[in-house]
Amino acid sequence: MRRLVSLMCMCVIAILSMAQAKYVFMFIGDGMGPHQVLSTEMYLAEMEGKIGRKQLLMTTFPYSGQAATFSASSGITDSAASGTCLATGKKTNNGVIGLAHDSTPVYSVASQLKQQGWGVGIMTTVTIDHATPSAHYAHTPSRENYYTIGTQLVESNFDFFGGAGFSRPLDRNNADAPNLYDLAQQKGYALVAGYEDVKNHSGAKKMILLPEYYQDYYTSFAGSLPYAIDRTSSDLTLSQIVEVAIDRLSTYDHFFIMAEGGKIDYASHANDGATVLHEVMDFDEAIKVAYRFYEQHPDETLIVITADHETGGMALGNSDYVLNLKVLANQQCSLDKLSDQLSALHKTEGKNLQWEQVKELISKNTGLYSKVEMTADEDAKLQEAFANMMSHQDVVKTLYKDLNALAAHTLGILNKKSRLGWTSGGHTASAVPVFAIGVGAEHFTGWHDNSEIAPLIYQATQSK
Q: Which of 113, 262, 395, 447 could form a disulfide with 118 if both were Cys (CB 3.0 to 4.6 A apart)?
């Protein structure tokens, strides 16, 4: 009997040792530190009248840990260096894509698996040549070399891309160079205008899924997909992109998907608390699409979720021992959109613009004054910002947008009332969360350096 049990154990060990991840999902929440995740869960709990957490799908995964994010050149990384490290396992200097700190090329898990015959898809809520996605296919000393990165994208031969489009479709240094959208089509990529247009390209071997209005930016900066809080029913979503990618890549026996929630970072740079929460929830919705696939293929799938860095130095608590996150439910649009609305109103009304008109717009979009009580000091601060706007166009600069200062002050008050705090308008050295489920997921527990993640993913894909 003992010998039989021993043989059975050996068989089980042999079977387990043969486990291989045939389908890999890597989700990167750009700028998503621990507090971006926890604040979202605590907000959802507060909305149900509870103190505590209402878990996102990602935090229910059985294996979790944390990863340090420093780059080769700085204790605080940028997205190029951290994206390169997450894609390749190699540290590099800030600003560098796909090159080690000694300038030698380093190759991503995605590119290695493509050479082994895997299907590969890279997708994001920002431009497809932004730092994080480009780290999986490009090699350049500067993340700002957008046209070069775009040419490397179409030369990658990856099967699927999805996102807002190209940052710089024209080469500023060469007027005769082809438009990147045209070049992509020449290289066999179908350019798909929105989710509903996918069915019209069922026979395409390679695809770039774009917003339906992408042709408006055929020669200019594509921007990004709308924030979840601002989105309309016709806007392309990360969940839809992941869904299409799975459908397309399921024709392969193996596939690798990297999906980035890029605008968690944008909202954190702007210290826009409510918009951050909506972006994290939206990111989790995309993870649910992959999880449904995992449920059908649990013995062959690996899902890993992490972040490239934390942005904003988000803190849960700014004064007394109280959180009031539910007050953020009154915010109806992003800081970016509120800024645009206030600037547009000012432009339309000019010198005739009255404080009561501005107050009504603020109340409609944030609940301040109507649903959220304002102190005399808070009211005075906003009226002062209004006076400054009328005398000169006061702006608050963030990494991705110059904001109307009155809009920034308005949401600063709402954030303070929610008890959210911010230490920075940039990145921090905070460790980031790691969550995993599936084949090889047990290796993602504990404290990691971000350089360990790519090798662990690659190891899970190789036959034992």
A: 113
